[in-house]
Design goal:
The protein has 258 residues and is of the alpha/beta class. 45% of the residues lie in helices and 14% in strands.
């Protein structure tokens, strides 16, 4: 299916690996002009840029740190100048916070750790939306997708509550942005991945355990990063005209009760 993204100007934050990489390359296959951001892995981002161009697109790489608003403004300004505008923005970058700050119990967590994660993952994406808004409003088919997580709804132990809360905040942000940006024809949606594979595998979960987990979902299938990318491309394409303010779950369906 031709999604109408040829020559579209796209920005994928956190595009050096995982879902961001798969999405950026998928845009390349559509013939889009794709900018990706990286925080610390410039070499990985440049490799992805080569993959975008090999797939048929044009690539541009810029640094950005979700926790530093000035770098967000600089990255967006650079991309807008380089491409002459923006048609699609995928807010995919994530900041997990320092691993040594995670605690099992909320009463043991430091306010500094909590604040850093929320500011990066919620406030950082608010700053991103703020910076890309003018260019998206000027586009004939401006699209913004915020990448969340199913942890924002189902939760998880082990200190994931700060990250889950920050991502849940994106749902509220999108609910209001659809009214603001929608007035100028921009569509704003949220994609919620769950357990996501890369090349059919998971970097932490062993294969035998993964098979058992997969069987516990109603689709009997867990999505690969390429399937998350497919959902994002659909939502950011001109073919999508009436999907607005939605939370799209790409998770393998519901968990089957034990």
């Amino acid at each position: 299916m031709d999604l109408g993204l040829k020559d579209a100007a796209a920005l994928v934050t956190g595009g050096s690996s995982g879902i961001g990489r798969a999405t950026a390359i998928a845009y390349g296959r559509e013939g889009a002009r794709v900018a990706i951001t990286y925080n610390s892995r410039k070499d990985a981002a440049e490799t992805v840029a080569e993959e975008i161009e090999a797939a048929g697109g044009a690539a541009y790489v810029v640094p950005m740190d979700l926790s530093a608003p000035e770098t967000i403004a600089a990255a967006v300004a650079s991309v807008v100048e380089h491409w002459g505008g923006l048609d699609a923005v995928v807010a995919n970058a994530v900041d997990w916070g320092p691993h040594d700050g995670r605690t099992e119990k909320i009463e043991d967590a430091s306010p500094e750790w909590w604040t850093a994660i929320v500011r990066a993952n919620l406030e950082g994406n608010m700053h991103l939306a703020q910076q890309v808004a003018p260019a998206l409003r000027r586009s004939a088919h401006g699209r913004l997708v915020l990448v969340s997580t199913d942890l924002a709804e189902r939760g998880m132990g082990g200190g994931a509550w700060a990250y889950g809360a920050a991502k849940a905040g994106l749902h509220g942000l999108a609910a209001s942005l659809q009214h603001d940006l929608g007035a100028d024809g921009v569509l704003v949606n949220v994609v919620l991945p769950g357990i996501t594979l890369e090349n059919g595998a998971h970097r932490i979960i062993p294969r035998d355990a993964l098979d058992r987990i997969t069987a516990g979902f109603t689709a009997r299938h867990l999505p690969d990063v390429s399937e998350i990318a497919d959902a994002i491309l659909f939502l950011t394409s001109p073919r999508t005209r009436a999907v607005q303010g939605e939370l799209l779950h790409v998770t393998g369906g519901q968990l089957i009760p034990a």
